[in-house]
Amino acid sequence: MTRPYFPPKGLSVKFALTITAVVAGVAFTIGAVIVTLDWQRYQTELESKALLLAHSVAVTAPDDILQNDSWSLYKSLKNMANDASDGMQDTKILTGMIQDPDGNVLAHLNPGNNPLGMPLIHSGEVETRFFTASKEVRVPTILNTDISVKGFLEAVAPIYSDGKLLGVVRVRLSYKELYQKAQRSSFVIIGMTLALVALGSFLGTMISRRITKPLTAMTEGIEAVSSGELSDIKPIPVNFDDELGVLANAFNKMAKEMVEKKSLEEQIAVSEKLVALGRISAGVAHEVNNPLAGLMNCIDTLKKHPDDPELVERYLPLLDKGLNRIKNIVESLLIELRTEEAHGTDNSSSLEDLRDIVVSEINDRDIILNWDNTLGEQVLINRRRVQQIVLNLLKNSIQALPDKGVVSFSTRQNSDTIILVVTDDGPGIPAQYKSQLFDPFFTTKINGTGLGLWIVYRLAESMQGVIEVESEVGMGTQFKVTLPLIELST
């Protein structure tokens, strides 16, 4: 078979992407650190300016407050605003005010909306919080450092005269100019980062091509391995004395061993199938042949004495028993086949459907059934397979009890698995039988087919599950089945 030729771009792309990702990661990290530091520096500068402006008014305000000179207080605020506009071009004062300890306005940059001598007008939760906090300030303080709150920064400076609190100065500066400065700085950093990423991508591509170029000769062999067509693998010429030469030698050795291994695996798989088929066939032949021989003897005798009612009465139950045994064996094999091929999923509440079946199996026997299904409805299971496992194990436990006892069934989820546990307090399993429990047609029961536990084992194995048995003679038996959790499809 001729395969299309694919140059080894996968590894070169990975090298290029890795180098680019490393350069991009380092560049973006450095950029993020610089932008963060710039923002912190700008914010610190803005806080210092706000405190300086508030303090400059607080220093000159005591005499005017004591003289009740509102006009001078207003001029102090106005001069502060003018000085800020002239000397701090990147700073915008949103508002400024002086209020007494009770929160009444002594001066305001917007006196029209804030009458003197009246409580400060404030609306909204944020303004109320700042108003309350400002009355409690005793040292110069920044009330708001969060840019997301109203987009401003507020500094508060207390006004003292001879140790007595006369009021506070509140100055609000806009975050807008700070944000614009940080934005300009961010654009520069981002531009430099993108340039470094582009350069890293270019260098990464060039380096990766140079590294992966000698691997071109291995492409066809690798494609053959990935497609499973090992017979088409050709030895790779070794033209290098470095690590690539070692790699080529190792690949040639691996390819040869894989071809031999695949051939051996195919032979083993065929042998295992034949052995398994032979065991099942021999078991079916043996289990069916025994009752069949008896049936034929009965029929032969009835043919010879068709008018003997005593013989008819004697042999009809034997015929019925033998035919039922053959029927049970065939039905068990058909159930195993149908169930193992089932793929439908359902939530774990479908296990509750088995409860009535088990109760009817107990019938009027003195057996207590403990049922504890704790799996939530969000847990999915393979409905038919798991139901068949649980039903077979519960029936096995019920049949193991002589006259009375306790059978328990419980479920739980453990990380990415679900666990099913069936326990009984019956006579237990002798040690010499434990290794044969899951063999087909092995049974210690008089009327058993020996297929129940074999079916359980097959079904658990088909779902990549594990079944464990703990049993002691006279102490009962516990079967624990661990199955992988079925993921919810999104």
For the record, the CATH class of the largest domain is Alpha Beta
The share of residues in helices is 40-55%
Overall geometry comes to elongated
Annotation field: number of helices = 10
At the fourth level of CATH, the homologous superfamily of the largest domain is PAS domain
Query: Percent of residues in beta strands?
Result: 15-25%
Task: Give a written overview of the molecule.
Strand 4 (152-161) and strand 5 form a beta hairpin. This protein has helices spanning 9-66, 70-87, 125-135, 176-212, 219-227, 243-304, 309-340, 353-362, 383-400, 452-462; strands at 93-99, 105-108, 141-142, 152-161, 164-174, 345-347, 366-373, 380-382, 404-414, 417-424, 466-472, 476-484. A 5-stranded antiparallel beta sheet has the order 2-1-5-4-3. Strands 7-9-10-12-11 form a 5-stranded mixed beta sheet, with helices on one face. A two-stranded antiparallel sheet has the order 6-8. It has 490 residues and is α+β, with helices and mostly antiparallel strands. The protein has 3 domains: 9-182, PAS domain (Beta-Lactamase), CATH 3.30.450.20; 235-341, Helix Hairpins (Orthogonal Bundle), CATH 1.10.287; 342-484, Histidine kinase-like ATPase, C-terminal domain (Heat Shock Protein 90). Helix 1 (9-66) runs antiparallel to helix 2 (70-87) and helix 1 runs antiparallel to helix 4 (176-212). The chain is built from 10 helices and 12 strands. It is elongated, with a radius of gyration of 44 Å. The model is unreliable at 1-8 (pLDDT under 50). The protein starts with 8 loop residues before the first helix and ends in a 6-residue tail after the last strand.
